[in-house]
Amino acid sequence: MAEVTLEKIVSLSKRRGFVFQSSEIYGGLNGAYDYGPLGVQLKNNIRDLWWKEMTQIHEDIVGLDASILMHPRVWEASGHVANFSDPMVDCKNCKSRFRTDQIDLASACPVCGNKDSFTEPRNFNLMFSTHIGAASDAGSLIYLRPETAQGIYTEFKNIVSSSRVKIPFGIAQVGKAFRNEITTRHFIFRSVEFEQMEMQWFCAPGTDDEWFEYWKTQRFAFYEKMGIRKSHLRWHQHGKDELAFYAKDAYDIQYLFPMGWQELEGVHNRTDYDLSQHQEFSGKDQTYLDPATNERYIPYVVETSAGLTRNVLMALSDAYEEETLEDGETRTVLRFHPNVAPVTVAVLPLVKKDGIAEAAKELELSLREEFTTFFDVSGAIGRRYRRMDEIGTPYCITVDYRSLEDKTVTLRYRDSMEQVRIGTDEIVSAIKEANKNYKRVEK
Ligand code: GAP
Questions:
Q1: CA–CA gap between residue 138 and residue 134 (Å, rounded)
Q2: Pick from 54, 147, 167, 404: CA 20 to 30 A from residue 379's CA?
């Protein structure tokens, strides 16, 4: 099987409208991306699966949509103002900037080749800052949030008092985060503007280890449910040098991206650090009175923190395949799980004439309540199948002359390319059944 490279994913993403470089007509903006018609649908589908998993399938998790801009003291309390930085060096000759952990300081500059041209390492804060209000002085300085989690902590008390939740419970949030990443390699893997799906699970001190194990199991199972190949997922435990000073334990779920194993999601035992910090910096009580024990304490937090946009890259990488067919032809196919595929069903009239296109259009309209659909009349039927394979559409329906007579159509399955003849009144149930039973065949 042909190798899956990042170049192939980038090229397909642009060609088929998944992801574009931001502001491309002006030469592009490094590390910023636009999600095109198929990309935004794929991203929304992943987000919706996660949201359903958290707030519908799991009990005791409520949602939140906090603002991106927050009081600047939040980021002092969280430790981001003091610590959220990477040590960097600049090349004095070409002015390129590098993370010290990503280059050999003893060697020449990788951009201009000059020797001994690096400055001393300096800490470079990753938060983007801006100003609020008319004045742009120190008093108006605010930040674009570098993670969504802090909005959850600052709303902890409001949610406890307004939502009848009792510990243990979780708060889930999906939203944009911003980091002034100096090295924005690997397409959407590491970008300056991205989306996170975070859930903070508040629990009683002493129960945190058990919940940590529970959430590890749940989060790994989620990716299997999403149809991601198990052989491409693994755990990585943070060593002493990686672990945040307040964290009791931390594991990453890693995915085998085209450029190697990389972090996809973190599961962290953050202890009572964040709420304690906010209590200290805001002067507002963040304790919880446990009605079961009558004890008052600052809850411990187990965090599950996944990158939504990084999940999009994983979904594309995992689905991408160049398959050699029996006739020697190669087809590019995205083997998305039907739950995340941007288009579920394509309806294709075999020919345009004799009322076939009209009948096919009518059928496509009738399926829109149930599925995301696509209608394509142009080109040979084989070419149209290939186009649908390339964007990962799991089902194609072909309407032909016989359809006009007996109300049957051909249903084609993307993965096996098997075709079956079924009545139009059976389509919805056949597709729902196939979705329910979908299993990726690993080749
Ligand atoms: N609240 C904890 C937190 O933000 P993190 O490990 O810094 O932890 C969590 O980020 C997840 O967010 C990562 O596993 C990754 O999927 C995603 N992420 C982080 N930085 C990113 C970036 N620059 N571009 C895209 N995704 C990013």
A1: 12
A2: 404
Question: What's the token pair of residue 116?
Answer: 């001994």
For 244, the 3-state DSSP assignment is coil
Question: Where does the pLDDT of residue 135 fall: very low under 50, low under 70, confident under 90, or very high at 90 and above?
Answer: confident
The preferred substitution site among 196, 301, 313 for testing ligand 1, maximizing ligand atoms within 8 Å of CB, is 196
**Which ranges of 179-327 does DSSP label H, i.e. alpha helix?**
208-225, 273-282, 308-319
Q: Name the closest-CA residue to atom 25, ligand 1.
A: 190
Return the closest-CA partner of residue 220 out of 244, 252, 175, 174. 252
Cα 185 to ligand 1 centroid, rounded to whole Å: 14
Mutate to test the pocket of ligand 1, among 147, 252, 268 (most ligand atoms within 8 A of CB): 147
Ranges 383-387, 393-397, 439-443: which has the least confidence: 439-443
- Contact present, 45 and 341 (Cβ < 8 Å): yes
Q: How confident is the model at residue 443 (pLDDT cuts 50, 70, 90)?
A: low
Q: Are the C-beta atoms of 143 and 127 separated by less than 8 Å? A: yes
**Ligand 1: centre distance to CA 306 (Å):** 7
- Measured in angstroms, how far is the CA atom of residue 359 from the centroid of ligand 1? 48
Ligand 1 centroid, distance to 207 Cα (angstroms): 26
Across the range 329-334, mean pLDDT stands at: 95
Least trusted range by pLDDT, from 67-71, 95-99, 295-299, 427-431: 95-99
Provide residues with CB under 6 Å of ligand 1: 147, 149, 179, 181, 190-191, 194, 196, 198, 263-266, 303, 305-307, 309-310
Spatial CB neighbours of 60, under 8 Å, sequence gap ≥ 6: 165, 166, 168, 169, 170
* Distance from the first to the final alpha carbon of the chain: 9
Q: Give the number of the atom of ligand 1 that is nearest the alpha carbon of residue 149.
A: 1
Residue from 265, 422, 372 nearest 44 by CA: 372
